[in-house]
Amino acid sequence: DVVMTQTPVSLPVSLGGQASISCRSSQSLVHSNGNTYLHWYLQKPGQSPQLLIYRVSNRFSGVPDRFSGSGSGTDFTLKISRVEPEDLGDYYCLQSTHFPRTFGGGTKLELK
Amino acid sequence: QVKLLQSGAELVKPGASVKLSCKTSGFTFSTSYMSWLKQVPGPSIEWIGWIYAGDGGTNYNQKFKGKATLTVDKSSSTAYMDLSSLTSEDAAVYFCARGQYFDFWGPGTMVTVSS
Question: Are A14 and A83 in contact (CB under 8 A)?
Answer without folding.
Answer: yes
